[in-house]
Structure formats: structure tokens, C-alpha cells
């Protein structure tokens, strides 16, 4: 318990140090404590390439990489990382292709949100408003889940000595400071630090486990192949990743890449070269992360056996590392700081995205709001959403997790509209129709899944709605031009 208080204290300190450095640099360069519109939403579009790349990776991987992905591999085998690698490959292609086009379009213009580009190119404010409302609905549960997940982990790890209220409450104070003073620049530099902490912690933790249990990469593969070969192939030990489901869940997961908090990173780039740097960096990051969590999951399978609950796997890993002397404690502390830092910066990033959407895409097109008031309104909305998320976390409803899981599926329905924003045949009618009809199809498919517990034809329930979206969008676009 005292050790964990120390880790929490160190995490808060490094957040505050980063915030202090950002504020010092801002005051020195602009003579202002508070960020303006461009600084608040886009970090002034002058981040170093490495920091920009790490904030993209941090927003993409988040806490799940440290606390959840190894458990998924432990329970379901190699499919737990392969589907993410496939989804990431497609998502990175979207970043390279669409992100560059959006950046070029926004260059020299006062554009702060990807949805502003959609509204402009489709010549429809109402389309931007429609998509903004959908994104807000799908993003909000993620914020509550960040708080709920960290609160549950803190409570479990400290055997109830630190409650959800005190642990998450203190975390919220840091988040609010970042929201009001730091803006996107503070989030970006926090992502930079926490990605280093997460990756170094995972790598060092894996190395120490290898030394302690006398393992190696090759011996793990051989032993797992002897004990549970199902972990090294699809559909996995529990039959979860049957090929139709594996392929479709990979495609659906691509929807995460078009969510505003990630697409905004393309607008933050100085030039195309920085987006190229982001693409290469993300490819390297996903390969490193996938390798680390795969071998941690397999190490846990061999050393702890197959009967642990996957959701609590990293808790066992942290305790095991903490029992291996001062070095083990230091490594587990770095991993925990990375995980807690990821949760806080992800919450900040999502909240800034909601503030951006609410002011730039929902309110500003229909009301005359000055830039300073847009920042103030964004901060107020973000604070209210964070408070609501905190109280939701006190007694989280069962459907919240389900809604968050379907967030990627709902976002994926807007892929045709987004990737075709610069296409000559684009149509606002096609965009409205494809999104509305496929969203209705997703609601029906999800209802069927909840009632029967079965997927449709063994595929993810978002598959047919996604196909509906593509068919309607491009069908209407071609029909209108005939």
C-alpha cells in the first residue's frame, strides 16, 4: 500500500512537471498563461515530429496496451494481437491517405476539426452536425471506462485501501488542470512520456520474468506449443477467433482510426513529412507493442497456469514483479506510471475532442461565438462531461461497456463519407442516407445479438451495417451522376 501511494505520487508529479514546462514555454513565447484556440485544440501545429508521432500512438494504444492486451492474449491466444495488427495496418493506410488530404485542405485555413472539413466539402453544416452528434455518443462511454478501469485497478491492487472515489477523484484534479491550462500540447508531451514509460516498463518486465523463470523467446514458443498449441493458432483455445469473426472484427476495429481525437493529429502536423513520420512510427510502435504483450501473455500462461481471470492478469504480473526485489519494484512502478499516465492523457484527449466537436461542429456553425468564448465553452463542456463520467463510474450501468465496444462499429459506418470527402462524385445525400440506414441496421443487429447471444453468420454484428454503409454511399453517388 505505501508503495502504491508512492507510485501515485510520482505519476501526479510527472504530470505536473510536464504541465509546468508547457506553461513556462507558453508564457515565455506568448506572454499568456491560457492557450488560445489554435494552441488549445492543435498544439499550435508546431510539435516536434517525434512528439506528434508519440501522441498519435498514445491515443491509439492507450491504457489497454498495458493493462488489457496481455490478458486478451493469455485467454484467447495469438488472435488477440493478430486482429489488432490487421486493423492497425488498414487504419495506418487511412492515416497516410486521408490524413494527408485533410492536412493539405486545412493548411492556411482556420480549421480545427476533421468534421469542419466534412461540412465544408459536402457543403452541408447539417451533415457535420449529424456526424458530430454520433461521434459524441460513441466517444463519451470511453471516458467513463477510463475512470472505471483505473478506479477498479487501483482498488483491487491496494486491496481496497484506496477507493474509487479517492483514487479517481485525485486523478480528476490532474485531468482538470490539464484541461484548463495545458490544452493539446500538454496532452501530447504527456503521451510522449507515458509511451516511453509503458514500452520500457513492458520490455524490462518481460526481461526480468525471463531471467526469474529461466525463459527465452524460443523456449516460450516451444513450451506453449507443447502445453497449449491452440494459443499459437486460430481460432484459439476458446474458439473465439473463428475466421469470419476474426476478419470482420479486424475491419470493424478500423473505425477507431477515423474518430476525431485521432484524425485531429493529422491536422496538427506541419507538413506531409510529419505525417509520413507518424505512419512509420506507428508501424514500429504496433509491432513492438504486439510482440511485448504476446510474450507477456504466453509467459503468464506458462508460469501462472490457464485458470486466472484475464482481466486481472496484469495485477498478478505487477505483484510478481514487485516481489522480485528493488529492481522488480522499479520496473512495476514504471509500468504502472505508464498505465496511469495513459489513462489520464487518454481521458484528456477524448475530452478535448468532445469540446472541439461541441463548439466547432455543433455550436459554432449556427451561432456567432468568438474564439475565446469557444475555448471557454469547450472547457465548461469538458468539465461537465468529466464530472458526469465520474458519477457514472460510481455505479456503472451494464450497457456502458457494450456501448463502448460498439463505438468502433458505429464510427466505421462513417468511413465511406470520410474517405471520400475529396472525391468529385461525393454526395451529402449519400452520406446522410448511408450513415442513418447503417446506424439503424447496427441497432437492429446489436439488439439481435443481445437477445440471442449469437453473431450473425459467425461475423461481428457490425459487418452487415458496414456493408450497408458502403453500398448505399457509393450506390447513391453513382446513381446521381448517371
What do you see in this structure?
The chain has 482 residues and is an all-alpha fold. The chain has two domains: 2-397, Sodium/glucose cotransporter; 423-482, no CATH class. Helix content is 79%, strand content 0%. The chain contains 20 helices and no strands. The protein has helices at 2-30, 37-42, 49-67, 69-76, 79-106, 114-121, 125-157, 164-213, 217-227, 243-253, 260-267, 272-304, 313-322, 325-363, 371-394, 398-405, 407-412, 415-419, 428-452, 463-481. α3 (49-67) crosses α14 and α7 (125-157) crosses α15. The radius of gyration is 22 Å and the shape is globular. The model has no long low-confidence stretch (mean pLDDT 86).
Global shape: globular
Into which percent range does the helicity of residues fall?
over 70%
So what's the CATH class of the largest domain? Mainly Alpha
Q: What would the average pLDDT be, to the nearest integer?
A: 86
CATH topology of the largest domain: Sodium/glucose cotransporter
N/C terminus separation: 70 Å
Strand share of the residues? under 5%
CATH architecture of the largest domain: Up-down Bundle
Instruction: Domain count, please report it.
Output: 2
Largest sheet: none
Per DSSP E runs of 2 or more residues, the count of β-strands stands at 0
Structural class: mainly alpha
Tell me the CATH superfamily of the largest domain: Sodium/glucose cotransporter
Gyration radius over CA = 22 Å
Number of helices: 20
From N to C, what is the helix and strand string? HHHHHHHHHHHHHHHHHHHH
Poorly predicted regions are none
Amino acid at each position: 500500500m505505501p508503495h502504491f501511494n508512492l507510485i501515485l505520487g510520482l505519476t501526479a508529479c510527472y504530470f505536473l512537471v510536464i504541465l509546468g514546462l508547457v506553461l513556462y514555454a507558453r508564457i515565455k513565447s506568448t506572454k499568456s498563461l491560457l492557450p488560445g484556440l489554435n494552441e488549445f485544440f492543435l498544439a499550435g501545429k508546431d510539435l516536434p515530429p517525434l512528439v506528434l508521432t508519440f501522441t498519435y500512438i498514445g491515443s491509439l494504444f492507450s491504457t489497454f496496451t498495458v493493462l488489457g492486451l496481455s490478458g486478451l492474449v493469455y485467454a484467447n491466444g495469438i488472435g488477440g494481437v493478430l486482429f489488432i495488427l490487421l486493423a492497425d495496418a488498414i487504419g495506418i493506410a487511412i492515416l497516410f491517405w486521408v490524413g494527408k488530404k485533410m492536412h493539405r485542405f486545412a493548411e492556411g485555413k482556420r480549421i480545427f476539426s476533421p468534421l469542419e472539413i466534412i461540412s465544408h466539402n459536402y457543403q452541408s453544416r447539417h451533415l457535420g452536425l449529424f456526424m458530430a452528434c454520433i461521434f459524441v455518443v460513441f466517444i463519451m462511454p470511453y471516458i467513463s471506462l477510463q475512470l472505471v478501469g483505473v478506479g477498479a485497478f487501483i482498488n483491487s491492487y491496494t486491496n481496497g485501501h484506496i477507493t474509487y472515489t479517492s483514487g479517481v477523484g485525485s486523478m480528476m484534479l490532474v485531468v482538470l488542470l490539464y484541461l484548463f491550462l495545458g490544452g493539446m500540447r500538454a496532452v501530447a508531451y504527456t503521451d510522449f512520456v507515458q509511451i516511453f514509460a509503458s514500452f520500457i516498463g513492458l520490455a524490462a518486465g518481460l526481461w526480468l520474468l525471463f531471467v526469474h523463470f529461466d525463459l527465452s523467446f524460443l523456449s516460450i514458443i516451444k513450451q506453449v506449443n507443447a502445453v497449449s498449441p491452440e494459443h499459437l493458432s486460430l481460432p484459439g483455445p476458446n474458439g473465439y477467433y473463428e475466421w469470419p469473426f476474426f476478419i470482420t472484427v479486424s475491419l470493424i476495429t478500423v473505425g477507431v482510426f477515423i474518430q476525431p481525437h485521432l484524425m485531429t493529429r493529422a491536422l496538427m502536423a506541419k507538413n506531409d513529412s510529419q505525417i509520413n513520420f507518424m505512419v512509420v512510427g506507428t508501424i514500429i510502435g504496433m509491432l513492438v507493442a504486439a510482440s511485448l504483450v504476446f510474450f507477456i501473455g504466453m509467459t503468464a500462461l506458462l508460469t501462472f497456469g490457464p485458470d486466472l481471470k484475464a482481466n486481472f492478469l496484469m495485477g498478478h504480473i505487477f505483484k510478481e514483479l514487485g516481489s522480485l526485489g528493488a529492481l522488480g519494484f522499479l520496473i512495476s512502478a514504471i509500468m504502472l506510471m505508464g498505465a496511469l499516465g495513459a489513462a489520464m492523457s487518454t481521458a484528456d484527449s477524448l475530452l478535448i475532442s468532445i469540446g472541439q466537436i461541441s463548439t466547432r461542429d455543433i455550436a459554432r456553425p449556427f451561432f456567432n461565438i468568438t474564439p475565446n468564448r469557444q475555448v471557454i465553452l469547450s472547457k465548461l463542456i469538458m468539465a461537465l462531461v468529466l464530472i458526469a463520467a465520474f458519477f457514472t463510474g460510481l455505479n456503472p450501468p451494464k450497457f456502458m461497456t457494450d456501448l463502448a465496444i460498439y463505438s468502433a462499429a458505429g464510427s466505421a459506418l462513417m468511413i465511406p463519407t470520410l474517405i471520400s470527402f475529396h472525391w468529385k462524385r461525393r454526395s451529402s445525400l449519400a452520406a446522410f442516407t448511408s450513415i442513418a440506414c447503417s446506424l439503424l441496421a447496427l441497432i437492429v443487429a446489436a439488439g439481435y445479438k443481445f437477445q440471442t447471444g449469437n453473431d450473425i453468420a459467425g461475423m461481428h454484428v457490425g459487418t452487415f451495417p458496414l456493408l450497408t454503409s458502403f453500398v448505399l454511399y457509393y450506390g447513391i453517388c453513382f446513381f446521381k451522376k448517371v
